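Lab notebook page, bench 4
Experiment: in silico fold of construct C2
Operator: M.H.
Input chain length: 405 residues
Purpose: comparison with the prior construct
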Amino acid sequence: MPDVAFVNLFAVTAIALCAPLALALVPKLRIPAVVLEIVVGIVVGPSGLGWVHPDLPVQIVSLLGLAFLLFLAGLEIDVHLLRGPVLRLALLGYVITLVVGLLAGLGFAAAGWVRSPLLLAISLSATSLGLVVPVLKDAHRAEGRLGQTVIAACSIADFTAVVLLSLLFSATGGGTGGRIVLLGMFVVLVAVTAAVVSLAGRSMRLGATLTRLQDTTAEIRVRAAVVLLVAFVALAEAFGLESILGAFLAGAVVGLLDRDSTSHPRFRIKLDAIGYGFLIPVFFVTSGLRLDLGGLLADPTALLRVPLFLVALLLARGLPAVLYAQRFGRRSALAAGLLQATSLPFIVTATQIGVLIGLMTPVTAAALVCAGLLSVLLFPAGALALLRGGRTAEPTDREPEQLTQ
């Protein structure tokens, strides 16, 4: 066996175990587990006490966690929502986001804080759909017109941000024009693969075999999903694109093919168990280990970037919600803006790529991640209070069927 120690990986997995347990035992501490995982990673990592280090085993599992995080994010995309006026509204909102993000990036570049305004704009342009949906469900708005509009806007933001990041800032290098051609070829190959898998799934014999093996030790559907994930990640890298694009599209394809889950209701639960039970928490704890908090705290001007980046995030993702005011009212539009400005996983991903390709300093990356942490702490709670307070003010919000007409 290779001479590799698993002490650091043990520490990381122990943190991943203790974080949700601590939050469950202290219910007054109303913060997402992902925030606590990153914070504890900072405390015990090289920037803090120096007890845990991101060695090779930790980095490998963390990389798998990132892939699975993007895979599950793609799985949440409901392409059937993305049509008609909802799609137009979501696209217009994302354009507004990019414009505001670019303006903020130009301002920060003039101050010498960022090296690429466009990279900053893309970093600020996504929304944590996995954090937004639970808030909408808690407020009983997920199935209403407002909830469906916000989910559609977040889906467009996530998908477009992943594509732009992979296309414009790939760590593999190469010209943008060449990557556009490669992206087109990759998308065609993904579509062909999805069509082949869909046709194969219609075979009665194969369908019966899958149903027979899905809940045995074979876990055949889970294995097939993992094969698709690894295949798309490998193909994306072979095409000179970021692996996150392959992982995201793999999730979107599985979600599209898994529309009728009556014969396999536990399939997505099993995927969540692999991702959120093991791989994804390791990624977030490792992100905390890698965070250059020391450099951020050493310079007061660097620390000032955190609230300014938070304001930039709120403006970039919150301003598009002004488009909802006429349809849903100002209170609901404000809540939607706060939800759309909730972002962390993509910021962590984008900053790591930015540091890797030399377009972002570790200090700037740390400031952006801290801003993302604050958005997760503050914005969903404010949105939930607004949505619950205005529950009776919008009786038409229970008509999702009118959304795409």
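Observations: The chain has one domain: 7-399. Residues 7-399 form a domain with the Na+/H+ antiporter like fold fold (CATH 1.20.1530.20).
Next step: discuss at group meeting.
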